[in-house]
Amino acid sequence: MLYWLTALSDGGDFFNLFRYITFRAGGAFMTALVFGFLFGKPLIGVLRRRQGKGQPIRDDGPEGHMSKAGTPTMGGLLIVGALLTSTLLWARLDNPYVWLVLLVTLAYALIGFADDYAKVSKQTTKGVPGKLRLALGIVIAVLAAVWASYNHPAELQNQLALPIFKNTLINLGLFYVPFSICVIVGAANAVNLTDGLDGLAIMPVMIAASTLGVIAYAVGRVDFTEYLDVHYVPGTGEILIFSAALFGGGLGFLWYNAPPAAVFMGDTGSLALGGALGAIAVATKHELVLAIVGGLFVVEALSVIVQVIYFKRTGKRVFLMAPIHHHYEKKGWAEPTIVIRFWIISVILAMIGLATLKVR
């Protein structure tokens, strides 16, 4: 919205700053951060009064989690609120990729909100039926994939770009939409599975989002793409503003989610943020890089898949408990130790993901 202030510029005054994506990204970050600090405490108060007993705690979970009973959930409302407000204020609203990531984020947030509401209102760990939640997620992902493909340059439509390999594209044809669905739905559910300890999910999401934001900015500039030998996707640079807003809103939320958490993000936040990461990857043609940058989420999801399949076939467990962060809890690792070490792993994976831009 503020971008339109450039109409008042003569090319050399203050208003000219709004032409620059980097300036507006900084503004988006600060706006989302201030939003989080201003509305975090009041929101937590409202959630605590409305939810009463807070998020139900699983009886079969780690013993230490019972002490978290009464903690309100739906804290993702704070992140999504900061993200939407800041992006709408600072991004160009005539950019299709901005609306792509915004609408995917909002749609998944609504699914997560319905799930959280069902849990706290009925005081059960079972919310919206899994099949219904998955079906709704797929519908959103289909629309997002088609919209992204429609707005991609003709030479990139339905193509899969490979990291590291220069100018290599695989034409997926009719399989592009199903592939994109897997990316978006998979990312949403992988982040959801990771959200099991105080502060565990939000920091890796912020790291992944900022990394993808830098990639989006790079592939949206023809001079950068020529230097880096990556595919040019005009318009994706504006996603940096969304990513900066996500980082700012995430920091504001982390202030209250740091151990011991005053609020949980719930499915409202985890599904929305995971969907956002998937949408950014699809928009920028860096779907496979997301698997590297978000490798922590991949491992968390795979640990659940492996555990379920192995248990059904043998009646035995590979991990003491899945997702894998609970395995380490069962092994006696302190919660802050798991969280910080997983953060470190996320930073390492982000650096590897960024390196793929030039290693070609």
Question: What is the compact description of this entry?
Answer:
With 360 residues, this protein is mostly helical. Helices cover 64% and strands 2% of the residues.
Describe the 3D structure.
The mean pLDDT is 92. This protein has helices at residues 21-51, 76-90, 96-122, 130-151, 176-194, 202-219, 222-228, 239-257, 266-284, 287-293, 295-314, 324-330, 335-355, and strands spanning 159-161, 169-171. Helix 6 (202-219) packs parallel to helix 9. It is 64% helix and 2% strand. The two termini are 37 Å apart. The chain has one domain. It has a two-stranded antiparallel ribbon. The radius of gyration is 20 Å and the shape is globular. By secondary structure, the protein is mainly α. The chain contains 13 helices and two strands. Pathway: Cell wall biogenesis; peptidoglycan biosynthesis. The chain crosses the membrane at residues 20-40, 74-91, 97-114, 134-150, 170-188, 200-219, 239-256, 263-282, 288-311, 338-357. Its main location: membrane. It is found in: Cell membrane; Membrane. Keywords: Cell cycle, Cell division, Cell membrane, Cell shape, Cell wall biogenesis/degradation, Magnesium, Membrane, Metal-binding, Peptidoglycan synthesis, Transferase, Transmembrane, Transmembrane helix.
